[in-house]
Amino acid sequence: MCEQELQAVKVEDALLEQPESRADSHRITCHDICKDPDHRKLAICSIICGLSCLGIMSLMYSVKARETRKRLQNENTQETQQMVQNYSEKACKWGIGSIVAWVGLILIFPLLLGFLSYVVTFID
């Protein structure tokens, strides 16, 4: 294994050993949903299957996460990892938000049409 993989395994082991509080034990993070560290696939799917303007924001943060990881690959500090993780989390949140917003619009549109016809019947 290379040095980076060993460090990643050590970090994961340290996180698993830490006791979790009750609130955190039921919290689902973006990394639980998607194993892609940059969430690039989620960002592309959110452009295609969601609101594209929100999906583009997801893709921007995904690219920032990947480029920051590549640029600061040799500099493996806590600050660098936090910056990459922030970009990755934002990419995930924008991507999921894009898909949820699209599904919401698809569901709410027929309801609004039904409500409009209901209101029109009362006017007549």
Please explain how this structure is put together:
It contains 6 helices and no strands. Helix 4 (40-49) packs antiparallel against helix 5, helix 4 packs parallel to helix 6 (78-123) and helix 5 (52-71) runs antiparallel to helix 6. The protein is an all-alpha fold. It has one domain (37-123). It is elongated and about 70 Å long. The protein has helices spanning 3-17, 22-25, 30-33, 40-49, 52-71, 78-123.
Topology of helices and strands:
Blueprint: H1 3-17, H2 22-25, H3 30-33, H4 40-49, H5 52-71, H6 78-123
List the keywords.
124 residues; mainly alpha; 6 helices; 80% helix
N-to-C terminal Cα separation, in Å? 75 Å
Instruction: Give a short account of the largest sheet.
Output: none
Overall, the morphology is elongated
Tell me the count of domains.
1
Taking Cα atoms only, what radius of gyration do you get, to the nearest Å?
20 Å
Structural class: mainly alpha
Strand content: under 5%
Short description:
This is Transmembrane protein 265. The protein is mainly α and 124 residues long.
